[in-house]
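User: I'm curious whether this sequence folds into something compact or stays loose and floppy. Could you predict its structure so I can see for myself?
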Amino acid sequence: MRKAIYPGTFDPITVGHLDIIKRGCSMFDEIIVAVADSHAKKPMFNLDQRVAMVKAATKNHPKLKVVGFDSLLVTLSDKLDSNIIIRGLRAVSDFEYELQMGYANASLKKDLETVYLMPSLKHAFVSSSVVRTILTFNGKVEHLITPEVHKMIKKYRR
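Assistant: Here's the prediction. I'll summarize afterward.
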C-alpha cells in the first residue's frame, strides 16, 4: 500500500490544497493530511479548528485520513509508517523553501522521499496567506475555499 503524508498548517485549507490532494489521491493508495500545530507561524485558527476544516473539506475523499501533529515531520512519518511526503509548489519562491525542507528532512531520515506537485493553473495563486489577508479586511473568499470551510470560518471568527 502506497501511503503519503501531505503536511501543512492549512490555515485555512484552500481549493489549492484540495487540488494537490486530488492529484495525490490519483498517485497513492492513502493520503494522510497532517495538520501542523505550527506555533511559530501564529495561525489565525487553532489546531482543532484547522483539523475540523480539513475534515469538512475532504469528507468525500475515501482515500484520506486527517491528523493533527506537533513534532518533526520525520517523527510523524515513522509514527504513520510512511516515507513519502507530498508538497505543493505554486511558484519558484516556493521551490527554494520546499527544496531546503526536503533536504533537511532527508538528512534526518535517508529513505524519506518528497514528491512535489503543482496545482492546476487556475489555483496557482491561491494560498492560505492570501485567504487570511482577505479575511482580515472582511473580503470575499468563497471562491478560494469550500462552502463548508466558509461556514466554519464565519462561525470561528464571531
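Summary: The radius of gyration is 15 Å. The first helix runs from residue 15 to 27.
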